[in-house]
């Protein structure tokens, strides 16, 4: 979980950086330039297979983990009061992950799948920028995207430092830095993502 | 004080259990939680009913025998052992639910008594330094930095009560196992066998059916001896280091 | 039978090494042909089982707890003595020997104690090698502290949890042998009988506490490492499960019981808070270094700790400082305990029960500041607050003495063998090394000395002598007979169905013992106690109520089995206390004192009392095992 998690975090950085180009408000020129690079560069395309695998492994491992951990306590407690000992989101990574999976299905159905399908069929890329403008005109979709980003934030808030802990990358001197970076990352990245549909919907970007 | 107690009763491992409710109106705030149960039991015996079975021994917070999941938390509302929990931590008229530790690796023996022999088996898998009695160097021949000795002592303070497993939503035993692995990983005496030790202990832990760690930190928050999850990170580090950098030996076996 | 303590000849320092050479050895290839049973897995039991397993014997180890790691050795706080002289402060094997003999009020054997002091140094090395995290100095060497009034710093410690760490060390060595297949561990198993055939111990009968199954185990030798019997007082600092049953059943099978009346009472325990009290909690006696013990000069019934400040200094009686100006609050445990009892008997005790004295830190806090006191005693203060709800930083603690350790136990010779050949007793369950009073930080030392460094030698001698063919298996009729007697007794207990609970009767026994055979004993009181105990015994066997059956986990039945033995032991303790009309160590006879202080009588009582069981309801026979001192000259203790 930790290795794939950290790998997916690096993907988030790139994804977020490129998408943030829309805030340049240049009619999508920069955004499309980098989108084209990501969509056609053979190195990136090869890495993309790794990315898909990363997602699948992360999801699959997560499901196995949930199963194993449920089996470890076949008889549940009648009363549980875990609030004083742990945070709700650290205990709800499975739930948050499931929400993210649903979001991911919707999100790839919106952009990645039609684009790659079209590339495969015609060799041409779709205009993702235009697609964004039209998809994010629907307030329901914007709300769902924002919810997805919130799930991502909680997921990262626990997942980031947790990955380091699991890998044993832990030292008194660096723990505070890991926590700070993790918390900042968990807030900033989803916030930027969430701002995109909002900005488009509110016509801050057009 | 008067309390309503909802207590898990189960005749034996093979029989089905259920909650039974008892009204207990002879509770003094100065009683320990176990003494409160003693008084309840004395009343039950006088009525010819079977007393509630629960594990306990030293009653001073060190043997690790007492357990009890009280109102949704191991050892109750304070970060201490059940024997050191006193009734002044509860309110008059309160309802208290008492359950056994719940984990596949800790089967119920009777009522609130569970079988924690899985912990023993994990220790037997590698929780020792292989030295025979006699033939060891002078105590001062192995200098150990005070800070390291103190850190090892922090880890070694574990009493093996199983509250970490009980508290963990995954019934994971990582805190318990890592405390022992850490103690020996920190000390020079533990070095010669450090790689096999972590391998074997982790493998045994998995065999026993404990869950996996998802770093919720519940164990650390509930541990009556304040064992830190730093130990878990240290064990993970030991584990990966054993996995990737095991001894490079080309000749197997000894010989003359 | 004449008692032969088998003390080797020669100079004190050479006895043990010469003896080791004279002991027979078992051929390494033959060791696997011998079976050894170890009952109890505390410091003595775990260390013995591990060491014997390492040597190659087949060991079966038993404990009544759910894991060997829970044995009550784990609760020892202070430390372990060893004559390492790391501090260059004048310690030596001889000094540790001398201090222990003197501290025991000259009722221990010289040779045994010297051996203990000799091997003390090996214990530390062994524990360090096992990875016991002893406290260290900044330079990386082992740290020491002075403990229990010793003039030198020879106590090694692992925070306030030395017993725990030493036990976990022994437990780890035991685990290694379990993993090697040399030790078979039986958890939640209680020994109920020793099987003796042709005068030799051949095995034991146990009850599996979970299934209730009565089982037989045979072996070439049986080692009892079953701890002390302080729970005869019901309230003590022992664990709830600590019991005399194994030792007592052995006693009934021919092992003499030595000095049963020698019990140690610890002055700094948290007082009883009500009838519900189930055990007493000890607080380190280091508290007396800074705390001042007092009660009001005039009786103030029910005086609470929070109102103590309202008593002006002139109305306080700092009775230890008044009576013992040179030692003050640091007088030995027995003196401090007895004087607390006296002021409470006078009606000047404090707290709701009137059975407590104040231990006041107000002056120390004023002198050194709160932070200094906190650094020294922070965890003890927290523990006190946790248990009592009172904050000792703002009001005095209340303390009262409690039973802590029993110096008496099964009689053993120099080889730790009881009067039954093949039956050994190690650790607190024997009587051998502490005389009439044990020094602080010496119990851990003795348990590990017996298990790691004495029994591996002395047991080999016995085994080599009898040979591996000299064994009976569990089909022998003696085992069936033993199972029958154990089962019959259990059936009888379960069939009484009376009105009183086991705890009720145990509490009655405990109160009687505490009142008449506790800190201060008199002929009239002891005679009265004997009568009361006989009445309790009668009542127990006609009016106890045990719910449940014998073929399941039944903790009431377990307790009943143990209390039945405690009752019989209680009577023997009273007999022993009646016989010993001197005051020595933990045993204070009111008839034997001078100026209010204990008066020993070496002329008439320079011996170990060893009692022989003569049958149900019969008076036990006293055998005197004379003490022969070649090297030390006994003197009278004085702390004035």
Spell out the key features of this protein.
heterotrimer, A: mainly alpha, 77% helix, B: 256 residues, alpha+beta, Fumarate Reductase Iron-sulfur Protein, Chain B, domain 2, 2 domains, 8 helices, elongated
Structure explained in plain terms:
The complex is a heterotrimer of chains A (206), B (256) and C (640). By secondary structure, chain A is an all-alpha fold. Chain A has helices at residues 2-19, 29-40, 42-71, 88-91, 93-110, 112-122, 128-135, 139-166, 172-201. Chain A has nine helices and no strands. In chain A, α1 crosses α3, α1 crosses α9 and α8 (139-166) runs antiparallel to α9. The longest helix of chain A has 30 residues, at 42-71. Chain A starts with a helix and ends in a 5-residue tail after the last helix. With 256 residues, chain B is α+β, with helices and mostly antiparallel strands. Chain B has two domains: 3-110, Roll (Ubiquitin-like (UB roll)), CATH 3.10.20; 116-244, Fumarate Reductase Iron-sulfur Protein, Chain B, domain 2. In chain B, 59% of the residues are buried. The model of chain B has no long low-confidence stretch (mean pLDDT 95). Chain C is of the alpha+beta class. Among the domains of chain C are: 269-403, Flavocytochrome C3, Chain A, domain 1 (Alpha-Beta Complex); 478-604, Methane Monooxygenase Hydroxylase, Chain G, domain 1. In chain C, the strands form six sheets. A five-stranded parallel sheet of chain C has the order 5-2-1-9-17, with helices on both faces. A five-stranded antiparallel sheet of chain C has the order 11-15-14-12-13. In chain C, strands 16-10-20-21 form a four-stranded antiparallel sheet. At the B-C interface, α1, α2 and α3 of B face α2, α4, α5, α10 and α11 of C.
């Amino acid at each position: 979980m930790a290795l794939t998690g950290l790998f997916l975090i690096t993907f988030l950085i790139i994804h977020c950086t490129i998408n943030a180009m829309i805030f340049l408000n240049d009619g999508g020129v920069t955004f499309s330039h980098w989108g084209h690079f990501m969509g056609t560069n053979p190195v990136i395309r090869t890495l993309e297979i790794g990315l898909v695998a990363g997602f699948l492994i992360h999801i699959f491992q997560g499901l196995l983990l949930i199963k194993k951990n449920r089996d470890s306590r076949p008889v549940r407690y009648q009363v549980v009061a875990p609030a004083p000992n742990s945070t709700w989101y650290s205990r709800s990574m499975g739930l948050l992950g499931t929400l993210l999976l649903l979001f991911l299905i919707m999100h790839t159905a919106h952009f990645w799948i039609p684009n790659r399908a079209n590339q495969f069929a015609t060799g041409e890329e779709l205009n993702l920028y235009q697609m964004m403008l039209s998809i994010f005109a629907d307030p329901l979709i914007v709300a769902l995207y924002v919810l997805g980003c919130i799930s991502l934030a909680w997921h990262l808030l626990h997942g980031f430092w947790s990955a380091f802990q699991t890998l044993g990358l832990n030292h008194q001197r660096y723990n505070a830095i890991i926590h700070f970076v993790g918390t900042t990352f968990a807030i900033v990245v989803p916030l930027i993502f969430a701002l995109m549909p909002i900005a488009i919907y509110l016509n801050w970007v057009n | 004080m008067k309390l309503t107690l909802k207590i898990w009763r189960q005749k034996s491992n093979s029989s089905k259990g259920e909650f039974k409710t008892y009204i207990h109106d002879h509770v003094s705030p100065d009683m320990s939680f176990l003494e409160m149960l003693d008084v309840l039991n004395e009343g039950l015996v006088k009525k010819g009913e079977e007393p509630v079975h629960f594990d306990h021994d030293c009653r001073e917070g060190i043997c690790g025998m007492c357990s009890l999941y009280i109102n949704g938390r191991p050892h109750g509302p304070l970060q201490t052992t059940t024997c050191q929990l006193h009734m002044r931590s509860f309110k008059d008229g309160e309802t208290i639910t008492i359950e056994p530790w719940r984990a596949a690796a800790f089967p119920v023996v009777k009522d609130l008594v569970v079988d924690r022999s899985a912990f023993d088996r994990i220790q037997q898998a590698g929780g020792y330094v292989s030295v025979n009695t006699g033939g060891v160097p002078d105590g001062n021949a192995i200098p150990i930095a005070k800070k390291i000795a103190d850190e090892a002592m922090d880890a070694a303070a574990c009493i093996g009560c199983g509250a970490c497993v009980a508290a963990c939503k995954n019934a994971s035993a990582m805190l318990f196992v890592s405390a022992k692995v850490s103690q020996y990983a920190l000390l020079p005496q533990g070095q010669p066998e450090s790689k096999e030790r972590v391998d074997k202990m982790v493998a045994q832990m998995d065999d026993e059916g404990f869950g996996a760690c998802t770093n919720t930190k519940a164990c650390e928050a509930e541990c009556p001896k304040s064992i830190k999850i730093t130990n878990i990170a240290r064990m993970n580090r030991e584990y990966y280091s054993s996995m990737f950098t095991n001894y490079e030996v080309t000749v197997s076996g000894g010989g003359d | 039978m004449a008692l032969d303590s088998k003390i080797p000849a020669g100079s004190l320092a050479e006895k043990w090494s010469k003896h080791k050479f004279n002991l027979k050895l078992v051929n390494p290839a033959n060791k696997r042909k011998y079976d050894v049973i170890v009952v109890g897995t505390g410091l003595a039991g775990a260390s013995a089982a591990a060491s014997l397993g390492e040597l190659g014997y087949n060991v079966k180890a038993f404990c009544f707890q759910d894991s060997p790691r829970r044995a009550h050795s784990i609760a020892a706080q202070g430390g372990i003595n060893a004559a390492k002289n790391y501090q260059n402060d004048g310690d030596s094997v001889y000094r540790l020997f001398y201090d222990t003999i003197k501290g025991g009020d000259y009722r221990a054997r010289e040779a045994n104690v010297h051996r203990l002091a000799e091997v003390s140094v090996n214990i530390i090395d062994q524990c360090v090698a096992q990875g016991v995290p002893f406290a260290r100095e900044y330079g990386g060497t082992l740290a020491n502290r002075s403990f229990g009034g010793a003039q030198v710093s020879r106590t090694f410690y692992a925070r306030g949890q030395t017993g725990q760490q030493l036990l976990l060390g022994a437990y780890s060595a035991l685990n290694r042998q379990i993993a090697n297949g040399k030790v078979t561990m039986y958890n939640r198993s209680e020994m109920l009988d020793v099987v003796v055939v042709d005068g030799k111990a051949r095995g034991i009968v146990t009850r599996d506490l979970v299934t209730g199954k009565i089982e037989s185990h045979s072996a070439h030798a049986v080692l009892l490492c079953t701890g002390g019997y302080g729970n005869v007082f019901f309230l003590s600092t022992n664990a709830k499960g600590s019991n005399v049953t194994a030792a007592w059943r052995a006693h009934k099978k021919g092992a003499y019981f030595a000095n049963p009346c020698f019990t140690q009472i610890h002055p700094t325990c948290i007082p009883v808070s009500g009838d519900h009290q189930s055990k007493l909690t000890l607080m380190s006696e280091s508290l007396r270094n800074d705390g001042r013990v007092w009660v009001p000069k005039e009786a103030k019934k029910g005086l609470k700790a929070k109102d103590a400040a309202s008593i002006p200094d002139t109305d306080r009686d700092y009775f230890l400082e008044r009576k013992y100006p040179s030692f003050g609050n640091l007088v030995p445990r027995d003196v401090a305990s007895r004087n607390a009892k006296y002021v409470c008997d006078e009606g000047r005790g404090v707290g709701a029960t009137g059975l407590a004295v104040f231990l006041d830190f107000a002056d120390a806090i004023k002198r050194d500041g709160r932070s200094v006191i906190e650094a020294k005693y922070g965890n003890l203060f927290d523990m006190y607050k946790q248990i009592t709800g009172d904050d000792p930083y703002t009001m005095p603690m209340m303390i009262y003495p409690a039973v802590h350790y029993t110096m008496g136990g099964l009689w053993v010779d120099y080889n730790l063998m009881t009067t039954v050949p093949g039956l050994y007793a190690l650790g607190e369950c024997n009587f051998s090394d502490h005389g009439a009073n044990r020094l602080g930080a010496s119990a851990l030392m003795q348990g590990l000395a017996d298990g790691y460094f004495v029994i591996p030698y002395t047991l080999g001698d016995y085994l080599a002598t009898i040979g591996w063919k000299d064994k009976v298996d569990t089909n022998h009729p003696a085992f069936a007979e033993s199972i029958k007697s154990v089962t019959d007794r259990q059936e009888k207990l379960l069939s009484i169905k009376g009105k009183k609970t086991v705890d009720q009767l145990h509490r009655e026994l405990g109160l009687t013992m505490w009142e008449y055979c506790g800190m201060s004993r008199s002929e009239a009181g002891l005679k009265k106690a004997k009568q009361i105990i006989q009445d309790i015994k009668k009542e127990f066997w006609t009016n106890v109520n045990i719910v449940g059956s014998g073929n399941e986990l039944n903790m009431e039945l377990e307790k009943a089995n143990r209390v039945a033995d405690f009752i019989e032991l209680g009577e023997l303790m009273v007999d022993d206390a009646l016989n010993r009309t001197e005051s020595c160590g933990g045993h204070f006879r009111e008839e034997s004192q001078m100026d209010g202080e204990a008066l020993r009588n070496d002329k008439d009582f320079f011996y170990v009392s060893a009692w022989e069981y003569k049958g149900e309801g019969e008076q036990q026979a006293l055998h005197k095992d004379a003490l022969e001192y070649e090297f030390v000259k006994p003197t009278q203790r004085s702390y004035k």
